[in-house]
Automatic annotation (TrEMBL):
GO terms for biological process: L-proline biosynthetic process. The gene is proC. Keywords: Amino-acid biosynthesis, Cytoplasm, NADP, Oxidoreductase, Proline biosynthesis. Signal peptide: none annotated. Catalyzes the reduction of 1-pyrroline-5-carboxylate (PCA) to L-proline. One of its GO terms (molecular function) is pyrroline-5-carboxylate reductase activity. Coiled coil: none annotated. Pathway: Amino-acid biosynthesis; L-proline biosynthesis; L-proline from L-glutamate 5-semialdehyde: step 1/1. NADP(+) binds at residues 73-76. It is an enzyme of class 1 (oxidoreductase). It holds the Pfam family P5CR_dimer. This is Pyrroline-5-carboxylate reductase. It comes from Azospirillum lipoferum. Residues 11-102 form the Pyrroline-5-carboxylate reductase catalytic N-terminal domain. Belongs to the pyrroline-5-carboxylate reductase family.
Length: 274
């Protein structure tokens, strides 16, 4: 691969996350060719793109196809069955880039063989609008050029942080990988509480949705301010916000619940290692 020619990619699993990443690579012009393995087909967004070829399985890859990167985007529970078919593609010039929750670098090396070049990463669904957050960790065989290419692929759908300690990937998964679901649940919970306080259901949901997305956009635009500063700016002394925060920030309020939720997700990520 050269910077001019673009990368040759194999995408295994083109669902919510794989599909979002594929859109990002094509929009950024990083990929010259993407072969997609997924029996469920391609997303509408890439239909007719000459750079993309859909195949039904590893046994149907185009003759002589040698990808720079194989992106593994199937469910962790499917990975063990799917992965051995790609052993033949293990070589120093090909990176296996996993986005699967829990599956460790050692696990990939065990199934693919010791020579495998592996990056383990954890993105999140805001990748679908180019606002993802991904954390990645390389194994010892990843060259500087391969790390750079992996970074460009992940950065095509948002921000990227690299860590050396793979153990961090479990709490990363719990905070940013699963995190969008907590925020969407916050919308649901606020709407339900608004209804309980007397609002019509549709107005309660409209307010909750606009408030969470508006507050997120304000947080994003307020690079000089901490989240706590923005919270304090809403909170008038002895006003309505203070009354609510005294409930949410009580010792038995939201913090212990959030801490327990993130601990549960972290534990589950470790279990998925298999
Ligand atoms: N959904 C999320 O928020 C996030 C998911 N992930 C990880 O991304 C991976 C994919 O998750 P989603 O995209 O949510 O799942 P998904 O169910 O939307 O996509 C999985 C795709 O894999 C395909 N598939 C199943 N078996 C296959 C096989 N043997 N070969 C090729 N394709 C096959 C399915 O048809 C489906 O299109 C998982 O490992 C998950 O842990 C990571 C970060 C966030
Ligand atoms: O729920 C899951 O297991 C995946 C990983 C992070 C977000 N979704």
């Amino acid at each position: 691969m050269t910077a001019e020619s673009g990368a040759s990619l194999l995408l295994v699993g083109c669902g919510k996350m794989g599909g979002a990443m594929l859109d990002g690579w094509l929009a950024a012009g990083i990929a010259s060719r993407v072969v997609v393995v997924d029996r469920a087909g391609l997303p509408q967004s890439v239909a007719g793109d000459a750079r993309v070829t859909l195949v039904s399985g590893a046994d149907a890859l185009p003759e002589g196809f040698v990808p720079d990167v194989i992106v593994l985007a199937v469910k962790p529970q499917v990975m063990e069955e799917a992965l051995p078919s790609y052993r033949a593609l293990v070589r120093p010039g090909t990176v296996f880039l996993s986005i699967a929750a829990g599956k460790t670098i050692a696990w990939f090396e065990r199934l693919l063989g010791e020579g495998a070049v592996v990056v383990r990463s954890m993105p999140n669904t805001p990748a679908a609008i180019g606002r993802g957050m991904t954390v990645a960790v390389p194994n010892a065989r990843v060259s500087a050029a391969q790390r750079d290419l992996s970074d460009r692929l992940l950065r095509a759908v948002g921000d990227v942080a690299w860590v050396e300690d793979e153990g961090l990937l479990d709490p990363v998964t719990a905070v940013s990988g699963s995190g969008p679901a907590y925020v969407f649940f916050l919308v649901e919970a606020m709407a339900k509480a608004g209804e309980a306080a007397g609002l019509p259901a549709d107005l309660a949901m409209r307010l909750a949705r606009a408030t969470v997305s508006g507050a997120g956009a304000l947080l994003d635009a307020s690079v000089q301010q901490q989240a706590a500063d923005l919270r304090k700016a809403v909170t008038s002394p002895n006003g309505t916000t203070q009354a609510a925060l005294e409930v949410l920030m009580a010792p038995e309020g939201m913090q212990p619940v959030m801490t327990a939720a993130i601990a549960a997700a972290t534990r589950r990520s470790r279990e998925l290692a298999g």
